[in-house]
Design brief:
The chain has eight helices and no strands. The protein is mainly α. The protein is globular, with a radius of gyration of 20 Å. The N terminus is likely disordered.
């Protein structure tokens, strides 16, 4: 009898799951690039460009088959997004980095995705090229934009969205460690 109830219950649940429509709610500004970059040199990125802005530039590089430049911009965007996870209060928003790259690169054809990933691996294995980019980033000013793209990605918290008494220099140093730029 218990076995029949279990099977019946599972059938009802499975049947109702197919008849219900799933609605995706998305807050305005979620992962939005406010000033999207073009395919630019990673060493030209300044502290006012957000991770979303930089990721848009990386996607443009990929669209132009400039995969090495895309990889460098992805590295910079990763550092900026990691910095933002340290200053944004809402922990549910911290998945924005993964979601941002999924949004920008998810629709690329598989061959282009493979080319981007190969370029990222190549950058990571090239100490001269990565060292030049790390030197730039380590000496750069920490991001100074408001991380609206990340805040909008989270479930929301009441009160101030940014950490109080935030140490930007320490967070930037941690971001350098995150992308393995410790000189």
């Amino acid at each position: 009898m218990k076995k029949r109830l279990l099977v019946l219950s599972l059938s009802v649940v499975a049947g109702s799951a197919h008849s219900n429509q799933v609605t995706n709610y998305e807050q305005a500004g979620n992962l939005a690039a406010t000033n999207p970059l073009a395919c630019v040199s990673a060493t030209s990125v300044g502290p006012k460009s957000s991770a979303a802005d930089i990721a848009a530039g990386a996607r443009e590089c990929a669209d132009q088959s400039n995969y090495n430049q895309a990889a460098e911009l992805i590295m910079v965007a990763s550092a900026y997004a990691h910095f933002d996870t340290q200053r944004v209060v809402d922990n549910t928003s911290h998945g924005a980095l993964t979601a941002l790259f999924g949004k920008e690169f998810g629709s690329l054809p598989e061959t282009e995705k493979h080319a981007v990933f190969s370029s990222i691996e190549s950058l990571d294995k090239n100490p001269t090229r990565k060292g030049e980019l790390c030197s730039f980033l380590v000496s750069a000013q920490p991001p100074s934009y408001f991380p609206g793209y990340m805040i909008a990605h989270g479930m929301g918290v009441s009160g101030e969205p940014l950490m109080q008494n935030f140490d930007a220099d320490d967070a930037w140093a941690r971001s350098m460690s995150f992308i393995k730029c410790v000189l």
